[in-house]
Amino acid sequence: MSKAHTFKFSRTRTHTLRGELIKKKTIKKVYHISGFDCASCATQTELYLNQKDEIFFAKIDFSANKMYITYTQNILTVEELKKIIAEIESDPLVIYEEKITEEKKNNNVIKKVYHISGFDCGNCATQVEENLNTKEDISFAKIDFTANKMYISYRNDPWSIDEVKKAIAEVESDPITVYEEAQMIQAKEGKKKTQKICTNSMIFTLIRVAFGVVMTIICVFVLGKKNITG
């Protein structure tokens, strides 16, 4: 819910900024932003951001939970952005920098898919996701609460499961089940391989037994024939 407005919006400034974008060297950033009660709150926040000298241009896509900000000089940290937004929006918002663009540019990222479960609600998963996205070693993190999946792209060496669990425990007190999807796939493949070996061994054993039975019948038949002729 937006706080009482004690300022006047300057739409002229916003329109002028759009025209100046091509004249100045700019830095564009994309953020995840969620927690607004309605689209109107997001619009009021967007207009408020466009009044700030630190921000060249701001746009909030309420339906996509994205915020686009263009800077010409110093880039604001996420905490600084939260502080500015708190001046107009009283509800707690989830904000973190989207790093998908950086990930696409960096060919050295290592992507991992994890199973993750045990959250009480979707908001708990979002809080963990936000915390992971603040880590220097992580280029991008996304948790799909409904599918029990977590996607992490690492800048360098991927974390161990214990390191992932430790980062999750920083904001989540409930016991969370986490394991790498590849480990489960390998385990299933190993189980299938073992089952295949057992099946082949059983078939071979049955063939040997059948062969023994056939040979026994043949021997009995031959011996019986000799006894008759003798």
* Total beta strand runs: 8
Tally of separate helices: 7
| Overall number of domains | 2
Structural class: alpha+beta
**Uncertain parts:** 6-19
Q: In which order are the strands of the major sheet placed?
A: 2-3-1-4
Q: Please state the second-level CATH architecture of the largest domain.
A: 2-Layer Sandwich
Which band does the percent of strand residues land in? Answer: 15-25%
Output the CATH topology of the largest domain: Alpha-Beta Plaits
What radius of gyration results from the CA coordinates?
32 Å
What is the rounded distance between the termini?
110 Å
Net shape: rod-shaped
Helical amount? 40-55%
Provide the succession of SSEs: HEHEEHEHEHEEHEH
Biggest sheet overview: 4 strands, antiparallel
- Taking all residues together, what is the mean pLDDT? 79
CATH class of the largest domain: Alpha Beta
Task: Give an overview in words.
- The longest helix is centred in the last third of the chain and has 49 residues, at 181-229.
- With 230 residues, the protein is of the alpha+beta class.
- The protein folds into two domains: 11-98, Alpha-Beta Plaits (2-Layer Sandwich); 102-183, Alpha-Beta Plaits (2-Layer Sandwich), CATH 3.30.70.100.
- It is built from seven helices and eight strands, in the order αβαββαβαβαββαβα.
- The strands form two sheets. Strands 2-3-1-4 form a four-stranded antiparallel β-sheet. A four-stranded antiparallel β-sheet has the order 6-7-5-8.
